[in-house]
């Protein structure tokens, strides 16, 4: 019975019921909409940056594997573009994937093709393979650009392989990625 008296006293004192009014709910939804409008593009940029970095780091890891295996085996090891994951391509881009091969043709590592919206271009001279000698000195230097090709974006990653076989990644915003090529009939 004491609780009924307390409830009656609260009503007499002008206490209002707790909850949201329709106006408060609409204001909260509007604020949420504005926050989502700001957050979604930022999230897309973060996801793009993460994927670009992952592809660039995959190439760096492959170069490091090729370099260390060449030293360990005391024999040349090749890093090359490969669509089938077994042999080097004579022509074509690195976005089809790549492999690390021993002198005897044993595959040490395979890389899957890049997603269709990304481009992976060798910017030096159309190089499709890099051989890491056992002495490590004398690697053909190369530079690769990983970028978004469709639609073209501003973010890029540049992978550089030096004469000594060291590989590094640099973040750029050049945005000069080649457009996706249209296939003919």
Kindly describe this structure.
The chain is built from two helices and eight strands. The protein is of the alpha+beta class. The chain has one domain (42-172): 3-Layer(bab) Sandwich (minor pseudopilin epsh fold). The strands form two sheets. It has a four-stranded antiparallel beta sheet with strand order 3-2-1-5, with helices on one face. Strands 4-6-7-8 form a four-stranded antiparallel beta sheet. The longest helix is centred in the first third of the chain and has 52 residues, at 22-73. The N and C termini lie far apart (87 Å).
Instruction: Note the gap between the termini.
Output: 87 Å
Number of E-state strands? 8
Question: Ranges with pLDDT <50 over ≥5 residues?
Answer: none
Average pLDDT, all residues: 81
Task: Provide the domain count.
Answer: 1
CATH class: Alpha Beta
CATH topology assignment? minor pseudopilin epsh fold
CATH superfamily: minor pseudopilin epsh domain
Order of helices and strands: HHEEEEEEEE
> Percent of residues in beta strands?
25-35%
- What is the architecture at the second tier of CATH? 3-Layer(bab) Sandwich
Range of helix content: 25-40%
Major β-sheet annotation: 4 strands, antiparallel
Q: Compute the number of helices.
A: 2
Specify the overall morphology. elongated
Radius of gyration: 28 Å
From the helix content, strand content and strand pairing, which structural class follows? alpha+beta
What strand line-up does the widest sheet have?
A: 3-2-1-5
């Amino acid at each position: 019975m004491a609780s009924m008296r307390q409830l009656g006293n609260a009503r007499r004192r002008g206490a209002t019921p707790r909850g949201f009014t329709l106006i408060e709910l609409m204001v909260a939804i509007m604020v949420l909409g504005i926050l989502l409008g700001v957050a979604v593009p930022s999230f897309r940029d973060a996801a793009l940056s993460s994927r670009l970095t992952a592809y660039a780091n995959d190439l760096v890891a492959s170069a490091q594997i090729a370099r260390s295996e060449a030293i360990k085996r005391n024999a040349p090891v090749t890093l090359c573009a490969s669509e089938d994951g077994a042999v080097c391509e004579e022509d074509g881009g690195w976005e089809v994937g790549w492999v690390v091969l021993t002198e005897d043709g044993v595959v040490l590592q395979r890389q899957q093709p890049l997603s269709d919206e990304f481009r992976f271009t060798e910017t030096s001279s159309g190089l499709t393979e890099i051989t890491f000698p056992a002495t490590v000195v004398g690697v053909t230097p190369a530079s690769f650009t990983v970028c978004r090709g469709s639609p073209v974006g501003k973010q890029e990653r540049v992978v550089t392989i030096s004469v000594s076989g060291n590989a590094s990644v640099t973040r750029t915003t050049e945005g000069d990625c080649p457009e996706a090529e249209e296939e003919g009939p």
